[in-house]
Amino acid sequence: MSEFELVQIVENTIAQIILIIGQLIAINSAVIVAAYYFLNQARVGIKIAAFLIYSLGALMYFLFAVRESNVNTGAARALLAIPENERSSTAAAILEFADSPANLVLNIATNFSVFFLWVVAFYVVFLWRKKPDGRDVVPGGGRS
User: Fold this and answer.
1) Chain segment 88-125, per-residue pLDDT in tens
2) CA 64, chain centre distance (Å)
3) Beta bridge partners of 143
4) Which of 37, 100, 122, 131 is most buried, most CB within 10 Å of its CB?
5) Measured distance between the N- and C-terminal CA atoms of the chain, rounded to whole angstroms
6) What is the pTM of this model?
7) How many angstroms separate the CA atoms of 9 and 75, rounded?
8) DSSP 129
């Protein structure tokens, strides 16, 4: 594969991961809306079913992101195999960022965000309550 193709693979996989995270945020927003309007009045069985379906979808998106990440890593390794004096400045910049602390923070934040979204969905479906008069009530009896 040429360097150009490898750089394209790296950039395309990053774009796919960004889209996947965006889809997870959109799905989470839908769960919040569903909980506010419908699930707060539902029985526990319906809540469990809805959460399991959400969790399955979120897991699938997460695994697609892992797959894209593995492809990205493979392409970056192939770029690394190109002798340093033959690499373009774009390939060098990609490899430089891949080894940077900023990339580590980005990877941790991305993985944490998926877990955080799942925890938020769990909280909204099972723990958050809406009083009949429309006011929100948080666990422990307080109001928000």
Assistant:
1) 999 999 999 999 999 999 989 988 999 999 999 999 99
2) 10
3) 137
4) 122
5) 57
6) 0.81
7) 7
8) E
